[in-house]
Specification:
Helices cover 61% and strands 8% of the residues. It contains 16 helices and seven strands. A hairpin with a 5-residue loop joins strand 4 (150-158) and strand 5. Helix 7 packs antiparallel against helix 15, helix 9 packs antiparallel against helix 13 and helix 13 (377-391) packs across helix 14. It is flat. It starts with 7 loop residues before the first helix and ends in a 24-residue tail after the last helix.
Length: 511
């Protein structure tokens, strides 16, 4: 695998700049996929990442009132239409009727509210529009304490071209939901889990962030001891990101196979259209021999392209399947979930070759290299970066410290946001949505660490270690690992299997 490793900090800064600009990730992904079918210029990429904002309109149903007095005072340019359960009393606009049909049954007095929003795309307009309406409803709830004003889960967004689309609030789902811990007997983490659940449901971002800090406090974490959680986070990030490199690789391989399949389908469609054109024009008297020759040549060219795409598709599918099978022999996963039974066996394939390893390990390692070259993009970059870090222990130590520093800075910001929200009564701030997402991620990592630790102890019939003591142990473990990485010549003794668990096997001669 060849190529230059992208600077992760530069990539992160670009991502933050795009986020601050306001770009819906689904729209951005689609736009990038369409742009990258050819080699774009830097100006074209920049224009796609940071497009100018344009006027959109977001329409949503507010249930619990027939009208909102003086709405234009709070939302300049807003419009509203009274709605009842009878379709005869609905607005006559086809766009509004389509939205109301999607919201049926409408069982309470309601009002449609449309607000203008300046944004880069439809998805971002929806986020900004819903937030503007939700925060404005605070005014009306304050003036009507018995009113229960709620925002509908389906809304309409109209772009600058006048075209509209219906959107629905999507929530993630899983086939089988599993509890955090293997046994429900422990109550130590119940307060944190309850607060984390509420924080996930709250729509106001700064309130969600403040609740995240409360979840951290419920396990005994105080602002002056945040560094312990930051060190534990660095260890868990090492484990999770190495494992995630495998997931990312497989997803990108599947995506590349889908692109190859799409090209084959397009080539087949071009062939069918060329054949149909030839059949339709041949009997016509006005068709000249030269035109017939040109159409026959077009059919031959389309068939050649289709056959080439078919051959590429078959070769790519067989190659990817064979390589994945070679890797899976060395890196087994537990069914039905694709969880690795031994993450260290995946780690083997990212480490440099070492003396005395089995030949099949090197075969699987080379399969990862070939598969990463096939997938390209972020997956190949990720494999390159981890192999580079694992080949240079001081570089890995530096990465661990960067993760610790990042988490510590985030914890400090969470604490500040919590104080602003609860003590100053401010519920909007810079990058508050991103802060809420980050806060929930920190809490998720903390619960994963503590839940996995307690689950292991419960299976062994051991007494449960307090969260405060677990963080003390992991903080010391992180310091010990960083010290080892500073003097070691290789990372082959590193083990991520139990790096954030109760067993001290993070650096072992036998793993």
């Amino acid at each position: 695998m060849t190529g230059t490793i992208c600077d992760p900090r530069l990539a992160a800064e670009i991502a933050v700049a795009v986020y601050i600009q306001g770009r819906d990730w689904e729209a951005l992904k689609t736009d990038l996929a369409n742009l990258l079918v050819r080699r774009p210029t830097a100006a074209e990429v920049s224009a796609l990442l940071w497009p100018p904002r344009s006027r959109h309109f977001v329409t949503a149903l507010v249930s619990g009132a027939r009208s909102l007095d003086n709405l234009d005072d709070f939302l300049p340019g807003a419009q509203q239409w009274r709605v009842s359960g009878s379709q005869n009393e609905w607005p006559k606009s086809k766009a509004l009727v389509a939205l109301l049909l999607a919201l049926e049954p409408i069982t309470r007095s309601s009002v449609l509210v449309r607000v203008p929003v300046d944004s880069a795309d439809l998805g971002t307009a929806v986020v900004l529009g819903r937030r503007a309406i939700t925060e404005t409803l605070d005014q009306y709830v304050a003036g009507n304490r018995i009113a229960d004003l709620t925002l509908g889960s389906t809304w309409q967004v109209t772009g600058p071209d006048g075209k509209w689309a219906l959107r629905r609030l999507e929530r993630a789902s899983v086939t089988n939901a599993a509890p955090l811990q293997g046994s429900p007997t422990s109550e130590i983490l119940r307060p944190a889990m309850r607060i984390a659940h509420i924080a996930q449901r709250v729509e106001a971002p700064m309130t969600s962030t403040a609740l995240c800090w409360s979840a951290l406090e419920s396990i005994g974490l105080k602002s002056d001891k945040s560094v312990r959680l930051a060190k534990a986070y660095a260890l868990q990030a090492l484990r999770l990101q190495i494992i995630d490199a495998r997931t990312q690789l497989r997803l990108m391989v599947m995506e590349e196979l889908r692109r190859i399949e799409a090209r084959a389908k397009k080539a087949k469609g071009d062939l069918i259209r060329a054949e149909n054109a030839l059949r339709a024009r041949t009997p016509l008297a006005r068709t000249t021999p030269a035109q017939i020759v040109a159409m026959v040549a077009a059919v031959a060219h389309a068939r050649e392209s289709w056959l080439a795409c078919q051959a590429t598709r078959g070769h790519a599918f067989n190659k990817a399947t064979t390589l994945i099978e070679i890797i899976d022999v060395h890196v087994p996963a537990a069914a039905p979930r694709p969880n690795l039974t031994s993450p260290d066996r995946w780690l083997d394939l990212l480490l440099p070759p070492c003396e005395g390893e089995a030949p099949e390990v090197d075969t699987a390692r080379r399969a990862v290299t070939t598969l990463a070259d096939f997938a390209g993009g972020a997956a190949a970059e990720t494999i390159l970066m981890w192999r580079d870090r694992l080949a240079q222990p001081p570089l890995l130590a530096k990465w661990l410290q960067e993760k610790q520093d990042t988490c510590l800075a985030l914890l400090d910001w969470l604490y500040v946001t919590r104080n602003i929200a609860f003590h100053d009564g401010r519920f909007a701030g810079p990058i508050d949505v991103a802060t809420a997402h980050a806060g929930r991620a920190i809490v998720d990592v903390m619960l994963e660490i503590l839940g996995r630790w307690h689950s292991t102890q419960q299976r062994r019939g051991q007494d449960l270690t307090s969260p405060e003591e677990i963080l003390n142990l992991l903080a010391q473990r992180k310091d010990d690992l960083s010290a080892r990485l500073g003097v070691e010549a290789a990372c082959h003794r590193l083990s991520i299997q139990h790096i954030s668990g109760p067993d001290e096997y993070y650096w072992s001669a036998v793993r």
